[in-house]
């Protein structure tokens, strides 16, 4: 087996031993995993960022094609790590082997899709306005504009995606695609997985003849390393997926800097599901079964897990609740990502259960095994009045939990929807005249969600140009961007204009002969 | 003459008298202008925002074509105000009549260009990915994405553009184009101009049959009204042009909200001009003349005024400085926008003059007339070592001031460039081999500027798709957006996705038959 060393990587070099170490613990059995991991020091943070800044001066100029080659090479080197990666990620995260294997495919797919995006090249949004020297009253200058990378970017590993949103995940892939260099903060739950993937990235950088400073990976179990990174004056942006509390702390630190920087924190979401009357009546069993799969998938540890279901009360709702109850009861407990997430899940469930007017609808027939860090599917039910009164019912509980809310009237249903904060997703089940009958409700929903799903479930986030994964606060700190899909690259760039430059001093994307053959806006008209 | 009433407009209705009033003062003679203007109360702020929120529910659905009609109507109603508007803006701002007339044309041009942009419709960046129901291992859903408006937006009037960046200026025009409603905070220097333009906006709203709540305009001489607006929970974004201190205060307030909102503050900039050796030698007189025009245009009160000129020292630089000196001496003092700006200008000049190693190169042969709120063109000179040592030489001085800095070596010139913060613009004068010889310097410049200008001057901001007016902090609070040009509309939107919706429940922009004929990305390919 590959021997892990437990050190951070700064521009490809291992950091020296540090007095502070930590071990990953396998949630599968609670056991400590070897080796000890050395936490990065403040000096390590500074070195990593300075290397990223130096490397940026080279990396930002190599062009999209060379960057695409790097992304493809990273994908290949990750696959080249073989089964050792799958095994370690499984041990560290408790996620099943097939899930990890699928996530590796997604990770490589993301890398290759960003490679394809930048190899094609039109993503830079090139705009050219030719000069009109004899325009009256003043001549029009030659002006050209395209996206340029921001600089060194910090990426924080996510607990629930040890591959797809960690070391070489979507944030890293999109930042490298944009021409930024990356300093990665590995998640404390899966440092070994991070080390392996970082090794693959360095192999790819070497293969492509690029400076190792393009990428660094730092360990740190708490928030000290993250805070030092977000405050470093040379850092120009940060990507994060995790809790609202941690995300907001990073956002606040970034906003308080002498020069504020953008923070893209994808945080909590209830992902409400609205069951409209005809759909509830016509598809009772299918919706109950679908909801069960969606809220327990990945042991409820997806940011798009539906944690809230709202409908009008009555016989159809009761029939639905009954079928859903049976579904939940037959669902097994399963290992969660780590002890802290598991404890938070049960604490959250206890908090909801303590609210007067909330009752347990269903729980798994089997009890969770604490030694295996298991969470146990559970569903509660309450009425809209109680839901509106108690803000604690509107806090995300990460894990296999959901809450069914029945409203007495449409007005009450809309009032419940109105008290929702921003959401990554909102789902509507509607048949027949439902959509036409509930336009006011749908309007309230649209204002609050990044993605609105009809007659399906929110889990399963497609990686494609029309995906929006990011919603009004607190779903994310910046609803104007997405963290999934090709548009995720837009987080790491700013537009720059060149005025009056000769052809040979312009980037290729802005030259009249369009050597890259990209789609551009020339004098207001889109053309290749 | 049109009789001004001096009240704020909330959804078209005048606010009642308030105990706090202020008068505009004409900088032309220091005289108080009638009438008294009533400052908006906290209650007025709340009412205006609630009307904007209510109106948003209607306005966001009327479609781009109806919104384009509104923008065109506003432009026509502004022209319809006639000479009274020109006169009042002249009295309040001290800007010459022909400048105000030109600015009115620019204001109407901006409104019409945003109207044209949204009438064409492709700006929504529509993306469609069709379903693949039989995809393995999981079916691909039908997913569609486009830009949607954020909600009620606050626009702050700018001192230096009483028309083009105030009541119906670029921020208002782009926000209305995007589908947002607007609460405008009039600048305390030109409240009468604001009242007149607001009247034109209401006439246009009435003509178009749209709710008056789409627009409100509040008076307030200090920062109280602005702070109340940026903290209001229903406000979803803010646009500002002005000083770094005021812009940062708004940014900080917005970031500290329970739900942070974007603030687009376009703030200070030195707009450095680099004179490279061949250009300095070959075009000494032309550069001296051009620089004089640029730094004194509009009495130096443009955000793109070149306040800093850097070059290698030596005989060519000395010859240039001498020619520039003559140019400055023959330039007349002129009336500045208001007493506060005039006082700040002279205070800033005094601060620079007090720095050891800085000397006066030239000042106007005529003294400024304080009764006419005049500023007097002045240029200083220093060496790069002094410039690098003294951060006060890197603060913007708004007005007809500039500083010439001579470096002994290329290394010193680059070091001086490196200590610059973010800039709206950076200008390079380069002939012959200059560009090739100074690639390191140009690289440093590119990192720091939103727009790089070659062999011209930064004043004169073209309104077109390839304009980038916004640079790294503190040039603006968000370098990823522009406040001038068609892309300014992107500040007021977020992307939203619809998954699995039937054709008749989708916005027209996302329907398969593309009724608006816009350019869209369908299954990854751009097509109409």
Would you give an account of this structure?
Two copies of one chain form a homodimer. Chain A has 528 residues and is an alpha/beta fold. Chain A has two domains: 42-267 and 480-491, Aldehyde Dehydrogenase, Chain A, domain 1, CATH 3.40.605; 273-454, Aldehyde Dehydrogenase, Chain A, domain 2 (3-Layer(aba) Sandwich). The first copy, chain A, has 16 helices and 23 strands. Chain A has helices spanning 42-59, 64-80, 83-93, 97-120, 170-178, 191-207, 224-231, 244-255, 277-282, 284-296, 315-329, 339-353, 384-389, 410-418, 434-437, 439-448; strands spanning 9-10, 13-14, 21-22, 37-38, 127-129, 143-149, 153-156, 182-185, 215-218, 237-241, 263-266, 273-275, 308-312, 334-335, 359-363, 374-375, 378-383, 401-407, 423-429, 449-454, 493-499, 520-522, 525-527. In chain A, the strands form six sheets. A seven-stranded mixed beta sheet of chain A has the order 15-17-18-13-12-19-20, sandwiched between helices. In chain A, helix 2 packs across helix 6 (191-207). Chain A is globular. In chain A, 60% of the residues are buried. The mean pLDDT of chain A is 96. Strand 20 (449-454) of chain A pairs parallel with strand 21 of chain B, so a sheet runs across the interface.
């Amino acid at each position: 087996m590959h021997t892990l060393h437990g050190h951070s990587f700064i521009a490809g070099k291992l950091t020296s031993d540090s007095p502070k170490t930590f071990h990953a613990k396998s949630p599968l059995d609670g056991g400590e995993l070897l080796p000890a991991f050395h936490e990065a020091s403040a000096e390590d943070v500074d070195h990593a960022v300075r290397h990223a800044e130096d490397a940026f001066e080279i990396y930002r100029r190599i062009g999209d094609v060379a960057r695409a080659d790097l992304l493809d090479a990273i994908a290949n080197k990750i696959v080249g790590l073989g089964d050792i990666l799958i095994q370690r990620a499984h041990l560290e995260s408790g996620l099943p082997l097939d899930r990890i294997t699928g996530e590796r495919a997604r990770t490589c797919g993301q890398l290759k899709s960003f490679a394809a995006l930048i190899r094609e090249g039109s993503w830079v949004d090139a705009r050219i306005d030719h000069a009109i020297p004899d325009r009256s009253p003043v001549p029009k200058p030659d002006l050209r504009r395209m996206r340029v990378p921001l600089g060194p970017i910090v990426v924080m590993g996510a607990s629930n995606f040890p591959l797809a949103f960690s070391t070489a995940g979507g944030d890293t892939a999109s930042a490298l695609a944009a021409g930024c260099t990356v300093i990665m903060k590995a998640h404390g739950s899966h440092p070994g997985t991070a080390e392996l993937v970082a090794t693959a990235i360095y192999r790819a950088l070497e293969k492509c003849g690029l400076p190792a400073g393009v990428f660094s990976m730092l360990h740190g179990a708490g928030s000290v390393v993250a805070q030092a990174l977000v405050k470093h004056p040379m850092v120009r942006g940060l990507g994060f997926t995790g809790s609202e509390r941690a995300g907001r702390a990073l956002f606040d630190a970034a906003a308080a800097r002498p020069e504020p920087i953008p923070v893209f924190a994808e945080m909590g979401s209830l992902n409400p599901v609205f069951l409209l009357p005809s759909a509830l009546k016509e598809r009772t069993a299918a919706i109950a079964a679908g909801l069960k799969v969606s809220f327990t998938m990945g042991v409820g540890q997806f940011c798009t897990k539906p944690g809230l279901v709202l409908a009008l009360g009555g016989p159809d709702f009761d029939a639905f609740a009954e079928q859903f109850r049976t579904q939940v009861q037959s669902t097994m407990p399963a290992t969660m990502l780590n002890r802290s997430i598991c404890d938070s899940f049960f604490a959250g469930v206890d908090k909801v259960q303590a609210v007067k007017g909330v009752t347990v609808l269903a729980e798994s027939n089997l009890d969770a095994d604490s030694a295996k860090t298991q969470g146990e599917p559970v569903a509660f039910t309450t009425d809209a009045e109680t839901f509106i009164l108690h803000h604690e019912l509107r806090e995300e509980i990460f894990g296999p939990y959901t809450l069914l809310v029945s409203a007495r009237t449409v007005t009450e249903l809309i009032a419940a929807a109105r008290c929702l904060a921003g959401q990554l997703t909102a789902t509507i089940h509607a048949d027949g005249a439902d959509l036409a009958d509930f336009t006011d409700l749908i309007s309230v929903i649209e204002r609050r969600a990044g993605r609105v799903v009809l007659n399906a479930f929110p889990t399963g986030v497609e990686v494609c140009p029309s995906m929006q994964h990011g919603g009004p606060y607190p779903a994310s700190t910046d609803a104007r961007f997405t963290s999934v899909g090709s548009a995720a690259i837009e987080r790491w760039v700013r537009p720059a204009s060149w005025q009056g430059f000769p052809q040979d001093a312009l980037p290729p994307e802005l030259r009249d002969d369009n050597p890259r053959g990209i789609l551009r806006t020339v004098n207001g008209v889109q053309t290749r």
